[in-house]
């Protein structure tokens, strides 16, 4: 019987070895996911310790998610070229060093720069770890189970982050929420060196520095404009100029990527209505989630006077909703499709947003926890169909990069949520957080209601017969490229666009 091999023709590790590799890769997803939720709980303590403004707190979150969103795509292709294990270890080392510098930061600017370093390392972890899993687990059924375990880490990090962050801030310091990453990162580096095999793509695509630069310039300009708009003025020269830079960078990116043979982003994907819709839904979902985590933490600790631990415990209903709904929705999609979860999830976001528009400094905790639970159910129903919808109708060779773009949309959505919702809430509480903050958040919760309505509309549109037809047309386009490659006319697109 022939020995099974990975996609790069090396022998497949035995089952015990594969499970160990899965655990090591899952550690990376856990610490990257934890770093988003755990830091939110520490924001009020950072606010007091470093005398940070609301916009400074926004940058503490967005400096991380913005860089992460900008570099996810290029990290995967770099790993395919120079070695996945090598890039994974570099990412772990960079993330751990960034975490240590965050813990030692004497001022807010230093903290923000250390968060950027963290994100550079984090961008090399999740997409590369997924490539390692896809390469090691060659059996489709076993691979699906491995990806299921991998995905469960997201729910665990969301549930564990606020509580662990609350414990660390209450008992040690806000600096401890960063220090906790260091021993985990060091352990993962050593385990990776010992157990994870090196692998590379047979035909890795070239790096696209121009496309990468345009993405960074465009996203950074937009986020900076939104975060600083309350102080600079929404119609100020600075805000309008930065908005113009975003439009120019986006236009240049689209035109440039359509002309080159090996683009960072394959623009033909966006001719598929399900793919484009899934990307937009991912932005809306994670904008709602990211904005909620940012604003709600400040509300509970600053307006309601809760300790970090109690504030973290209050978010458990949202995490519970996510953990309960995600596996149920995943099974439902397999037999009934994505329309019902998309519509149901969107309605859940609308309902939670409407409930939160009524909060005050004295709203009952039963009401608050009920709103958090409804939001968790809505978000949990939406996460599974996003990737499924993104890859709907795509050939197998394109599924990896389609999912990677969906992941980038998630991070960009989280960045945008903190920027927009934080800016709208902060505009009414100049000077300090606390007095009037509960009322100031109402406009942000109405934005969440609008995001839920957008999700419902996109859910109807992207699951229509017309939308599925556009996905099939894009799949046929890639199939023709594959046929041409087989005839020796051009390299296959699946090779050009790495997962």
Task: Please tag this protein with its features.
499 residues, mainly alpha, Growth Hormone, Chain: A, 3 domains, 79% helix
Overall, the morphology is globular
Q: Number of domains in the coordinates?
A: 3
Rg = 22 Å
Strand content: under 5%
Uncertain runs with pLDDT below 50, 5 residues or more? 1-5, 490-499
From the 3D coordinates, which CATH architecture of the largest domain would you assign?
A: Up-down Bundle
SSE arrangement:
Elements: H1 15-49, H2 54-82, H3 84-104, H4 108-123, H5 126-136, H6 140-171, H7 176-179, H8 181-195, H9 209-232, H10 237-259, H11 273-303, H12 308-314, H13 316-336, H14 339-356, H15 365-390, H16 396-426, H17 437-440, H18 442-462, H19 465-486, H20 493-496
Helix pairs in contact: 1-2, 1-5, 1-6, 1-8, 1-11, 2-3, 2-4, 2-5, 2-9, 2-16, 3-4, 3-5, 3-8, 6-12, 6-13, 9-10, 9-16, 11-15, 11-16, 11-18, 13-15, 14-15, 14-18, 15-16, 16-18
Describe this entry's structure for a reader.
The protein has 499 residues and is mainly α. It has three domains: 1-204, MFS general substrate transporter like domains (Growth Hormone, Chain: A); 209-259; 268-499, MFS general substrate transporter like domains (Growth Hormone, Chain: A, Up-down Bundle), CATH 1.20.1250. Helix content is 79%, strand content 0%. It is built from 20 helices and no strands. The two termini are 30 Å apart.
What would a concise description of this structure say?
The protein is mainly α. The protein has helices at residues 15-49, 54-82, 84-104, 108-123, 126-136, 140-171, 176-179, 181-195, 209-232, 237-259, 273-303, 308-314, 316-336, 339-356, 365-390, 396-426, 437-440, 442-462, 465-486, 493-496.
């Amino acid at each position: 019987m022939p020995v099974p091999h990975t996609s790069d023709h090396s022998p497949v590790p035995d089952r015990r070895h594969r499970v160990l590799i899965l655990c090591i890769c899952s550690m990376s997803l856990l610490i990257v996911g934890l770093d988003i939720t755990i830091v939110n709980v520490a924001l009020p303590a950072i606010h007091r310790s470093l005398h940070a403004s609301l916009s400074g707190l926004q940058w503490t979150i967005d400096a991380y998610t913005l860089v992460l969103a900008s570099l996810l795509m290029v990290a995967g292709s770099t790993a395919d070229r120079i070695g996945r294990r090598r890039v994974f270890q570099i990412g772990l080392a960079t993330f751990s060093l960034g975490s240590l510098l965050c813990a030692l930061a004497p001022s807010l600017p230093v903290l923000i720069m250390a968060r950027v370093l963290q994100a550079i390392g984090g961008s090399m972890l999740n997409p590369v770890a997924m490539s390692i899993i896809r390469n090691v687990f060659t059996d489709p059924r076993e691979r699906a189970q491995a990806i299921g375990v991998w995905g469960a880490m997201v729910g665990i990090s969301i549930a564990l982050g606020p509580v662990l962050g609350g414990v660390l801030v209450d008992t040690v310091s806000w600096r401890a929420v960063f220090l906790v990453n260091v021993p985990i990162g060091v352990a993962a580096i050593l385990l990776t060196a010992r157990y994870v095999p090196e692998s590379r793509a047979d035909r890795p695509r070239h790096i696209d520095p121009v496309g990468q630069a345009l993405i960074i310039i465009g996203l950074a300009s937009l986020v900076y404009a939104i975060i600083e708009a309350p102080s600079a003025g929404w119609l100020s020269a600075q805000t309008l100029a930065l908005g113009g830079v975003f439009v120019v960078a986006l236009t240049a990116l689209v035109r440039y990527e359509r002309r080159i043979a090996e683009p960072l982003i394959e623009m033909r994907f966006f001719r598929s209505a399900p793919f484009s819709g899934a990307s937009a839904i991912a932005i809306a979902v994670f904008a709602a989630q990211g904005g909620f985590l940012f604003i709600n933490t400040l509300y509970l600790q600053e307006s309601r006077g809760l300790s970090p631990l109690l504030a973290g415990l209050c978010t458990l209903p949202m995490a519970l909703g996510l953990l309960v709904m995600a596996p149920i929705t995943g099974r439902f999609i397999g037999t009934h499709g994505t329309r019902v979860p998309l519509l149901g999830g969107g309605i859940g976001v609308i309902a939670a947003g409407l409930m939160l528009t009524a909060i005050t400094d004295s709203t009952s905790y039963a009401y608050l926890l009920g709103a958090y639970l409804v939001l968790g159910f809505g978000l949990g129903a939406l996460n599974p169909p996003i990737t499924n919808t993104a890859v709907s109708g795509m050939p197998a060779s394109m599924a990896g990069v389609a999912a990677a773009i969906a992941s980038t949309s998630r991070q960009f959505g989280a960045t945008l949520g903190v920027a927009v919702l934080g800016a709208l809430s902060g505009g009414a509480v100049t000077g300090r957080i606390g007095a009037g903050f509960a009322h100031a958040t109402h406009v942000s919760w109405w934005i969440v209601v609008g995001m839920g309505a957008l999700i419902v509309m996109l859910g109807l549109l992207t699951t229509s017969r017309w939308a599925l037809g556009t996905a099939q047309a894009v799949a046929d386009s890639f199939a023709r490229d594959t046929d041409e490659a087989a005839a020796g006319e051009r390299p296959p697109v699946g090779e050009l666009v790495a997962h």
